[in-house]
Amino acid sequence: MKTEVSIGFSHFPDGIVVADPSSRVVLANSSMPRVTGLKRGVVVGQRMSDLLKKKVVSASAVVRVIAEGVPCTLRSLTMAGKENLVTARPVFDGRGNLEWIVCGIKDVSELRAASVMGSKSAQTEGTRWTSIIAENKQMQDVVRLANLVAHAESNVLIDGETGVGKELVARLIYERGRSKRRNGAFVKVNCAAIPASLFESELFGYERGAFTGALSTGRGGLIEMADNGVLFLDEIGDLPSELQGKLLHVIEDQQFMHVGGRSVKTVKVRIIAATNRDLRQLTNAGGFRQDLYYRIATIPIRIPPLRERPEDIRALVTHYMEKLSRRYVTKKSLAGDLSSFLLKYQWPGNVRELSNVLEYLFLTVGGPLLGVGDLPPEYSPLARPETSLTQQVGASGYQQFRSLKSMVKEYELGLIMGVMKRATCYEEAAKHLGISFATLNRRLKEARNVGKIVH
Fold first, then answer.
1. Among the four given CATH numbers 3.40.30.120, 3.40.50.10540, 3.40.50.300, 3.40.30.10, the one describing domain 118-302
2. I need a labelling partner for 368 at 20 to 30 A (CA). Which of 52, 161, 375, 436 fits?
3. How far apart are CA 28 and CA 41, in angstroms?
4. Whole-prediction pTM value?
């Protein structure tokens, strides 16, 4: 267990500790000292229950898991002054006995830094966020509307599938705005990523002594950080129901209170929300407050999925290929079969999926030409029956289905042809395909017989 965990967790950016059922820490990864401010010798080999008594930590998720037998997430303040978000999970053996407790530890200050982008950094990176590629008419309308509402004060709801670029549009609205909010911060809150038990204190801040592990000085929340700026609530459909009313109060009155506080604080914040869910349907089903929905959806913007804007695919491919060429200081190009595939594929992961696929190809193909045979296995046409069973449509309009054997044969020949275009000799091609020289010769002979290869 020790060796396996140390190999798997050694390079995690978050702190990782593993404890036994007595709460003794048996392993800590290399990130733990940075995240907690505690030296390995202070933690490894010690019982978390003892560290808790000695006030090395203000709270222990390990002790809580041992007592309750279920995962938990809590805040803890270390003697080094680091505020941590700790998530602990029990690991049971085959008989149901507690065997280990594995903890992930995040530095709360790092989480906050990742959420906030001040106006100065926004200006520095403005080009990166506002360069939205829009060859498609629907997408051009999105950009036009975003530019139009950028100068207003109204709240905006951006709707679209995962990976279509909702944050990109939100930042465009923020950066193009000419109001006073342009000088405030752009604060991103991922409503799906913060545990419900911690969401209120993160969003609204807290006073000293508000809960176990709270800083003695208290702490301001993300809403305060967004004062005179934009609060971007990503995946707002996952906002805990108990906080929806409090957020509504902030939007209506621009006022709120810290957790454990009594004084009212005033802010001036513009809300830009985003969701990949049908928020109206969720509202009708009672999963989201109707009054909050209408408050955040003053200006609704729908970003169409990539499959509805094929004109953008070609432009996006060109953009990412140039970007990758600069990043990796090498030039690569697309073979015709790959270009055709990229234009016809449905892209359920949208722009994010397209960029990931291109980077995969850039890093895994040694030669200068990228072909369809270089795609990851899951992109094989055989993995998508809906596209491989309808290869041809006759004059009568009826689909002419072909046998699985013929489709496999054609796909195999396509892969061989793709490799042959890049290989310098038959031996190199056979090695790349993982087949013998004789098998390659036989396949090429079959291809010539059916007219697939012409010398």
1. 3.40.50.300
2. 436
3. 10
4. 0.63
